[in-house]
Design goal:
It contains two helices and twelve strands.
Length: 218
C-alpha cells in the first residue's frame, strides 16, 4: 500500500513539473514575440494596413464614372479633376513609354477642342517633360475607345440608374498623350488647351522594381 501511494505521489509531481515547465515555456515564447513586435513597432493583435503606392497622399485622387451598356452599368476609374478632366487610372512606371487616355467635360458650357499640351514637372528635382495631343469630340461610347483599361461591370438596380441620371455629366471630348517619366516620385501635370491652362494634378511614378505595396503600422 505504501508503495502504491509513493508511485501516485511521484506521478503527480512529474505531471505538475511538466505543466509548470510548459507554462514557463509559453510565457518565454510570448515574451519573445512581444519583444520582436516592439522592435518592429508593430502592435500585437493588430493587422498591418496594406496600401498601394499609387495611393500616395500627395497624388490627385480618382473618381468613378458610369456608362450603361445594355443591361449592365460599366464603371471606370478616372484620375484627375472630378467631372473636369482625367485619364483612365493605370500604374505609372519610370522610364517606360506610357499612353494616357484622357476624358474632358465641358468648360464653361463649351466643348473643349484643340491642341492639348501636357507639362509634367518632378516635385523634388524640378525636371520637366512635355507631351502633346489633340482633344477631339467623343463620338463613341467609352467602352469602344482604345485604352489599356478594363472596366468593372455592375448589375443595374433602380437606385444606381436614378443616381446616374440625376448626378452624372458625361465627358464630351477625348485625347491621348504618350509620355516617359524619367524619375520616380510625385509629378505635377499641368494641362493646357490651345495654350490656355485648364487645370493641374499630381501623379505618383514608381520605379521598375519598386514594390507596389507598403506596410504601415496601425
Amino acid at each position: 500500500m505504501k508503495i502504491h501511494y509513493f508511485v501516485v505521489l511521484v506521478l503527480s509531481l512529474v505531471l505538475l513539473l511538466g505543466c509548470s515547465s510548459k507554462q514557463n515555456n509559453d510565457n518565454v515564447a510570448k515574451a519573445e514575440v512581444q519583444d520582436v513586435l516592439k522592435e518592429q513597432s508593430i502592435k500585437p493583435n493588430s493587422s498591418s494596413e496594406i496600401i498601394s503606392s499609387n495611393n500616395n497622399s500627395k497624388q490627385t485622387p480618382t473618381f468613378k464614372i458610369h456608362e450603361k451598356v445594355k443591361d449592365v452599368i460599366m464603371v471606370y476609374e478616372i484620375r484627375g479633376g472630378n467631372r473636369k478632366f482625367g485619364f483612365f487610372d493605370k500604374p505609372l512606371i519610370m522610364d517606360k513609354e506610357i499612353k494616357l487616355e484622357w476624358l474632358f467635360w465641358t468648360i464653361d458650357d463649351k466643348l473643349p477642342l484643340g491642341e492639348l499640351e501636357l507639362k509634367a514637372v518632378q516635385d523634388e528635382s524640378g525636371k520637366s517633360i512635355t507631351a502633346k495631343g489633340e482633344i477631339v469630340k467623343k463620338e463613341t461610347p467609352i467602352k469602344e475607345m482604345p485604352k489599356d483599361y478594363t472596366p468593372k461591370p455592375v448589375s443595374i438596380n433602380k437606385s444606381i440608374e436614378e443616381g446616374i441620371k440625376i448626378n452624372f455629366k458625361f465627358p464630351v471630348s477625348i485625347a491621348s498623350t504618350s509620355i516617359k517619366f524619367s524619375e520616380s516620385g510625385i509629378w505635377k501635370l499641368q494641362l493646357f488647351l490651345n495654350d490656355e491652362s485648364i487645370g493641374n494634378m499630381n501623379v505618383y511614378v514608381t520605379k521598375k522594381k519598386e514594390p507596389n505595396i507598403y506596410y504601415l503600422d496601425n
